[in-house]
Amino acid sequence: QVQLVESGGGLVQAGGSLRLSCAASGSISSINVMAWYRQAPGKQRELVAAIGIGDSTNYAASVKGRFTISRDNAKNTMFLQMNSLKPEDTAVYYCKARRLAIPTADYWGQGTQVTVSS
Asked: Is residue 99 left, alpha or beta, with left meaning phi > 0 and alpha meaning psi from -120 to 50?
């Protein structure tokens, strides 16, 4: 089992920045990929950014160039640096960890609210 706890959300004006953190505990060694997702009211949950083996990264087109995903393996923590925030970035942001070894498994955090005012 893996436990994930997000923090760092809040209210910010458009153009501002926030840094989200996701602290992982439990069977950390089994995790291969970690990612940030978000879900706005009335919308489906969507992938924001992911970081995988060798720290390869990928981003949603809507956040590329503004958001940066990273992780500190020594602290078992993943980050999402969000710059130039827009009102459309408003959502609950979730941390996800994936184990690729069979049986594969996905673990989710409880989410942290990000609100960007115009």
From this structure: beta
Q: What is the pLDDT of residue 100?
A: 87
Question: What pLDDT score was predicted for residue 64?
Answer: 98
Measured CA to CA, the distance from residue 47 to residue 36 in angstroms comes to 6
CA 79 vs CA 43, 44, 101, 105: distances in Å: 24, 22, 24, 21
Cα(92)–Cα(21) distance, integer angstroms: 13
Contacts of 106 (CB under 8 A, 6+ apart): 96, 97, 98, 99
CA nearest 72: which of 109, 9, 28? 28
pLDDT in tens, 48-85: 999 998 889 999 999 999 999 999 989 999 999 999 99
What's the token pair of residue 62? Answer: 């809507």
